[in-house]
Amino acid sequence: CLLSGSPIEPKYIYAEARAGHMGQRLMAIVAEGNRGRVYLAPTEKHEDIASQARPEWKPEVEMPANPRWFSPPMYGMTIYGDLFTPRQLVALTTFSDLVQEAREKVIEDACKSGWDDDGQGLDAGGTAYGDAVVVYLAFALDKGANLWSTITSWMSDRGAFRETFARQAIPMVWDFAESNPLSNSGGNFSTAIDKGRMAVAFLPTNAQGRASQQDAGTQKLSASKVISTDPPYYDNIGYADLSDFFYVWLRSSLKLIYPSLFATLAVPKAEELVATPYRHGSKEKAEGFFLEGMKKALHNLAEQAHPAFPVSIYYAFKQSETKEGSTTNTGWETFLEAVIQAGFSIDGTWPVRTEGSGRILAKGTNALASSVVLVCRRRPEESESIARKEFQRQLRREMPEALEAMIGGSEGASPIAPVDLAQAAIGPGMAIFSQYEAVLNQDGSCMTVHDALILINRAITEYLSPESGSFDSDTQFCSAWFEQYGWTKGPFGEADVLARAKGTSVDGAVEAGVLESGGGKVRLLKWKEYPTDWDPAQDECTPVWEALHHMIRRLNEDGESAAGELLARMPEKGEPLRQLAYHLYTLCERNRWAEDARAYNELIGVWHAIVTASHEVGHKGESLELDF
């Protein structure tokens, strides 16, 4: 947007919206045609019909003034009722009233049919059945609210509605889509009811289970239980705040039936174990609240966990920060600190594929595609303390083997993708750190989780670095130059000095086919610039750097089988290729070069398929059996 030739400042838009100057226009209508959808331009009559709706009630609960999860309040939409058009509010309130009528009808029909509830009488049985049906109808209404708001948008690529909660936040949506609850297509109320019916149909009918809601820090459900838990993720998601969106409609439908459950106007929030600064007064106080509460809850779990089984704890990442060559996260560090202080040792950290590629955050990014599961056991009470130097010695001794297992993949399992390696590789290091009562610094103080993670990530970097001795001089030069300049041009003089230090020369890298030099500048060639007819058997000098980018070009242009055929011609380079791909992904991720990082991540993601294809072709120049 432009105002007098200059971009409109966000503050101006906020102020105008809060002053009541923000409105809405009907832009298009999607209707059912004989052979598909028809897209129509609206008329004034259509807009007049929409504006005639007059709801008798709307939710007056205020949204938090927290722009991280709630954008609408910045535009003057301060209460949950502001998130809906008058026509949507009429639909929601009408269906909410009908839920009550449905309850009375269900009870009446149950009693007429001779309903009995374990001999308690017709009235008791019919009422219980009616209450149960109404709960599912209220869930359907909440499903409808998720689609019938001004935060719902239109996915033009699919021709479908994107729900209000496409992610765990309520953003500002400028082009929203309004569905017809009474239609026979997407977004209708019948579909919302059917979703609940499908879920009930798949419930086990003969199995017995028990659910109980208790405070994790004080619960005493049973001793020696097997525990798998998905706790709050520091400050990633404002569960209670966001739940109000659904709670206001549940309360409208069910408060007369369950008055104790819906006694408050909004969801209770004071005891929620989330580090929310605006609720606790400061970031430091919020972190302290989270650490103490999580430590108490996890300590209680450690006391009651079955000794024969590990405790699995899930953690989903958000907003990683790259510091000192490592991937860290304040919430992650605080969470690990709580786990260790609660009396657990961490035996492993492994990624679990839980995040879909179609989610909003994932589009066009290298966002972590997984959650991390921590495999924990109760630390023995007789565990001892060790010195910092001994901890570092153990890291150097044990981390290479653990990392090789991760990037190599075990039998029948794929290797850990580079995007997940930083978190998964923390496991072996934390297993060493957390098995001791404490790791002592030179001054006698206890090493923090933050400092331990720095050392662990340093060990990972050292293992993957071309300086480790697994790579030729040209590859070491290219890697160091790439880290500094990426694919852009740099001074010839600097390249000459760096190449000599690595035991090669600029001319040598040019002859190898990985570098362009001229006009006092040098530049690394991108994989798309590599020749398509390259044959490693005819190349007298093949740096690992060159071979890797030929592999990427072949994979992207011709697929996995073609990449496997190329690998079959240079099988001795398989391990260095894979290790260099991990290293270069780390460099790209650190510099936020998303597109470049994706190329290396995708190669590792299909590495097993490439290796399989190479064996099907037959490794050229490699003896596959002994010749007596």
Q: Report the span from N to C terminus.
A: 78 Å
- Which assembly state applies to the chains in this document? single chain
Domain module tally: 4
Mean pLDDT: 83
Give me the secondary-structure category: alpha+beta
Rg for CA atoms: 30 Å
How much helical structure, as a percent, in the residues? 40-55%
Q: What's the arrangement of strands in the largest beta sheet?
A: 7-8-12-11
Give the overall shape, derived from the CA principal axes. Answer: globular
Quick summary of this structure?
The protein is of the alpha+beta class.
Topology:
Elements: E1 2-3, E2 6-7, H1 10-18, E3 29-32, E4 37-40, H2 44-51, H3 86-112, H4 122-147, E5 153-155, E6 160-162, H5 189-201, E7 228-229, H6 239-254, H7 277-280, H8 283-304, E8 311-316, E9 321-323, E10 326-328, H9 330-341, E11 344-352, E12 371-378, E13 385-387, H10 388-408, H11 418-424, H12 426-434, E14 438-440, H13 449-464, H14 473-485, E15 490-491, H15 492-501, H16 506-512, E16 515-518, E17 521-524, H17 544-558, H18 560-568, H19 574-590, H20 594-605, H21 607-617
Parallel strand pairs: 7-8, 13-14
Antiparallel strand pairs: 1-2, 3-4, 5-6, 8-12, 9-10, 11-12, 15-17, 16-17
Helix pairs in contact: 3-4, 3-6, 4-5, 4-6, 8-9, 10-12, 10-13, 12-13, 14-15, 17-18, 17-19, 18-21, 19-20
